[in-house]
Amino acid sequence: MDDDVQLAAETLPGPGSVTWRRFARAPGVLLAGTGLLLQVAHPVVGAGVLEHSDFRRRPWTRAWRTHLSTLRFVYGMGEGAHAEGRRLIEVHKGIKGVDSAGRRYHALDPHAYAWVHLTLARFMVDTAALFGDPLTEPELAQMWREFRMIGLALGLKEQHLAPDWAAASAHFDAVVRDTLEANESTRDVLEALTAPAKPSRFLPDPLWKLLTLPAGRVLRLTTVGSLPPVLRQRMDLTWTERDERSLARLARVVRAVDRRLPEPLRYPPLAYGVIVRERLRRRRAV
Prior knowledge:
By secondary structure, this protein is mainly alpha-helical. It has helices at residues 3-11, 18-22, 32-40, 43-52, 59-75, 81-92, 110-131, 137-153, 165-178, 184-194, 205-226, 229-234, 241-260, 269-285; strands spanning 96-98, 104-106.
């Protein structure tokens, strides 16, 4: 085991960490589309998803697999972050080629791989800022130290992880400004969010529309509204003052509801189950 992996093994976040408390909070589902858009807007990620993924045919299946993968390396589900890192590297080894603009790409390009990791940290920060209690400066510093450790466990190297959150935020802004683009994968994500395909041919079209149209409107509002404005313009997405007011009203309601929920309802069941089991294990060990 190399030094980076040994360090990560010793310091991965657990109960009480900023990451465990904040990452999987339930309101995050409203910004999941934003995180995915930020990822596939990177030319390397977008090309890999377009040419090597089944997202277009089965967006919800793909989203569920991604959710499970994230829980494995954030909360240590299954064999934990190191095992998930090895699995991800193996899965992505063969994802390479030449995109429609003639650019060569490889899914394990360290800059693209690190970008995906950074979007997950940004997702946590944005979810807290919009739908909960914003992370304080000490929490931001601690969160990024924890995310650096997760990144090392996933196979990233020190030089591809910003030293602190201020540098990570500056890098995020630079990538948005200079690298991200509208592409076929971003269009597929937006379509899946706002007009999702039926999961079963046996589900009647009118019923499916009744179930998904309201949710699609909400997800479009939260997704488009939380994108960096420069990227929103690059994707030619309309955003009005009325949309801004609607998002602010929704955020107030979500914050009010979330603060009154009992703890088990503030997290997805899988994540909360891990949190409770690890708490109990540590109490027994004392």
